[in-house]
Design brief:
The chain is 0% helix and 41% strand. The chain contains no helices and 16 strands. A five-stranded mixed beta sheet has the order 2-9-8-5-6, with no helix packed on it. It has a four-stranded antiparallel beta sheet with strand order 13-12-15-16, with no helix packed on it. A three-stranded antiparallel beta sheet has the order 10-11-14, with no helix packed on it.
């Protein structure tokens, strides 16, 4: 353009876009779970519109706040990658050993011969563990009051025990 003094000038404009950088953040209350239990993950990220979760067991998810079930015991690290598809900016967070997956087993060991005469008995022992509770069954029916680690069987039948731990994992013996 020409100004009032007849000098020629040009104006150069440039548009700057200010894109916030995403910040990845995640949480779960399900840090100690049983095999096969559902773990609920919260996405507390700021910004971003594309999410990639890695649950540490070869499974991934692209949803905002996924759930996941672990098939085996162990400690699992969880990774969340958050990106903004417009700017390309992204952030990654890794929680090492975030989820501990456990399994309860149940077994019965007799202390003597399992064939006995009427009036005799055999003591059956379940496996032990911290915080375990027990429910004994005979022929798949719960035996009222039989909730100790051992049970004195006085009747013929098929005895099993259900072993549970303090977080609700359980297993039934064969």
């Amino acid at each position: 353009f020409e100004d009032t003094l007849h000098y020629w000038s040009s104006v150069i404009t440039d548009t700057f876009m200010n894109y916030p950088v995403p910040v990845a953040a995640l949480a779960t209350a399900d840090t100690l779970v049983c095999v096969g239990s559902t773990v609920h993950f919260a996405n507390n990220s700021v910004g971003g519109n594309h999410y990639l979760w890695n649950f540490g067991d070869t499974f991934t998810s692209g949803t905002f706040a996924p759930t996941h079930q672990y098939a085996d015991t162990g400690y699992y690290s969880v990774t969340l990658i958050v990106t903004d598809s417009v700017s390309g900016y992204g952030d990654t967070v890794v929680y090492t050993n975030m989820v501990h997956v456990i399994r309860v087993t149940a077994s019965v060991t007799p202390t003597g011969n399992t064939t006995f005469c009427q009036g005799d008995s055999v003591v059956l022992n379940a496996n032990t563990g911290t915080g375990f509770s027990y429910v004994w069954k005979r022929n798949n029916n719960i035996i009222n009051g039989a909730t100790n680690v051992s049970y004195a069987a006085t009747l013929a039948g098929n005895y099993t025990v259900v072993v549970s731990n303090s977080i609700g994992c359980s297993a039934t013996s064969n």
